[in-house]
Protein 1
Amino acid sequence: MNRRTLVYILIIGIVAAVIYWMTYQHRIRQTSELMPLLASQDHKEGMEAMSKLKAHGVGVQERLIDSLTSQVARVRWRSAVLLGELNDPSVAEPLMQRLDDPEPQVQAAAARAVGQLRVKSAIPRLTTMLSSDSEVVVRIAAARTLGLLDAEEAVASLAAALTEQQIAAEEQPQDNWQLPVAAAHALGSIGTPQAATALIGAVQPDERVRQAVAYALGDAALKLQHDETQLSNIIQALLVAGKDDQANVRIAAIHSLLLVPAPSSQQQTVAQLIEQAHSDPHYWVRQVAQAGPG
């Protein structure tokens, strides 16, 4: 290698180092400009700042961890959301601390984040949040995260949330059904025999909950398809749901029945129900039945 070549290599190295340094400094300046926008009351502005910060990746992680203790609740929950999306398990501990935040939206954001990071050690705290927190938004987030974490030890608490009576329906009619729906989907994701039993035994007057249970039973059936007794019980429950007076419940039941082959003793009954669904008065029931498995 001659002297001229060495000079060229040196120049290229210096240029690359300068470009890297300039890029790094630009990101630092941009991060410093974006971080205060996490406190913005303008939703669009706050979301745009979050999107740009996320693009910076783990380079903004330490700043976001610091922001978890901000005096402004919007900053804390937006920081928790971002940390979950950055997908670095090393931030689990500061997020776990936010599960006890005084602001429900921050608790819910932290719960979702630890679910994204698959933090199994959060299961006991999330189970307590599901069972005893006074805020519906927190309980819903806890239920969904327990499903993400396949928290078998939380099945009893999820079952209780699923069958919970319509507490304070007059005061919170918009939230009345969301918790049992979240619990149903979580139980379906967990998919143990105990979870399936809880879903099968659920009796709910709200069609949205019955719909969620029917879909969740399909999820559970996929996990329990080699347990013929459990699968048979699930299929029987879906056959009942397939005759529900609400079309959305029938759609969910038909969809779930098409996911897994029924035990031989139930195949004819399932086939008859699917055939009847081909002439259902509701368009989407017919479409799901005609689409077949898959």
Protein 2
Amino acid sequence: MNRNEQECVKKETSLDQIKNIFLSDHLLFSDMGFVAKDIRRGYAEIFSPYNSLCADKHGVMHRGVLVTLADTACGLAVFSALGEFAPIATVDLRVDYANKIHKGQDLEARIHCSYLGSTAAHVNGEVTAIKNGSPKQVVARVTGIFAVNTPGKSFSENYQENSA
């Protein structure tokens, strides 16, 4: 196997690890039911099933779930662009609500890392309401700036310490 092939294998393994550790093994994300549907270099698509415990009195998913889903997908897009769990931090996250979420609808975030520099990353995408398994409408547009290679421990270092 040549160096380029080894690098591709390494990146694929890293994306699998990022997907598994970041979502499946993270208590908040697993309790919220977040599922990574598609993770590629610089792209993350995460599904959040409807949960009545996270709904308002009208049965509509709370907007806090939407923001948490968006921020999680943004972070995952940055990690996948980096190809590793380097330390990152949300600097700015803008969520522009576009349409109403209706009772019982699932949510799905699709985020692209459109710029990755040595100290910052830019992300953008949308959150869509899902009805009966099909996208119904965009409910929010998302843009954000993430600091990369920040001081401190990486996500995986914190995870390993807390798992021990």
Protein 3
Amino acid sequence: MSDITQTKPFSLTDALDREALASAAPSQAELMQELRVRPKPGWTSRLPPSLAAFVTNPKGMAGVILLLALVLFSVLGPMMSDYNPNRRAGKPHVAPGYEHVLGTTRMGKDVFTQLAYGGRISLTVGFGAGIAAALIGLAIGISAGYFGGRVDDVLTFFVNVILVLPGLPLIIVIATLVEQASPLVIGVVLALTGWGWPARTIRTQTLTLRTREFVLSAELMGEKKWRIVLVEIFPNMLSFFMGGLVLGTIAAILAEAALEFIGLGDPNAVTWGTMLFWAQSNMALQSGAWWEIWPPAIAIMITGAALVLVNFGVDEITNPQLKAGRKISLIRKFLKRRGRSADVF
């Protein structure tokens, strides 16, 4: 006798329940939108994974676009102007208009031309000092943390000396000795005094990495020291290197502008800092000539904001814990909106 399989009769209530569940379940597109997961463009598959992740990062790309806009303006801006930044181009304090896009200073100089030429020097000094300080800090920090022993003791001593050596007062002393500190002198002093904190941070991280399994495995396999440093340790220091680079560049640009604003720089050099110095000396705000002081101030603020956005983008890519924390917070909010428990996280 064959077994007769008994099936539960299908009711209209069950059909309605299934239909309701199906209609309540979100689609894949809705889930991706709520979790803020964006499909990656197809052309990014040809790029290296780290570069593809940075290109698809909104914060990082926004910072890069702003920086490129400033660099292009500084490079191509003078070509679009017929005026000399050091010579008179019109009447004093002419408001922005067709002939002078950003107006003129009290001395009759074109503000647009000065802003473009000043960007060349200010960005060069800032990026030069920031890159130099970050590279010095990276080399000294990794060397001290990885090799240890006497190398660590000697390099740590120099790091401590640099940390207690103030950069701005040193530039002030140099400016009083040479009468006028040029942008090159300011950049060199900032580069030589700004690598202390990056070096200490990278040294601390290197001390934790040199006992990891992948570093010990490379040493047991007989890999050379320089290869272990470049291939095994340096990629894990990218976020700290970018952090030091961004902070060093911002500090250099602000320090140069501050020193030139208080009159310790070369007043004949055309930079964003000297533009602020002459605007303050000529009482631009008191006379209502806002166009003389706001353009260089806004340029400095945009440069700092762009560098911070680039740092945020790099940190989100190279820091898995930060990236995972952001994803978990989005999943928590998603589950709470669905009335589900989020205690699993």
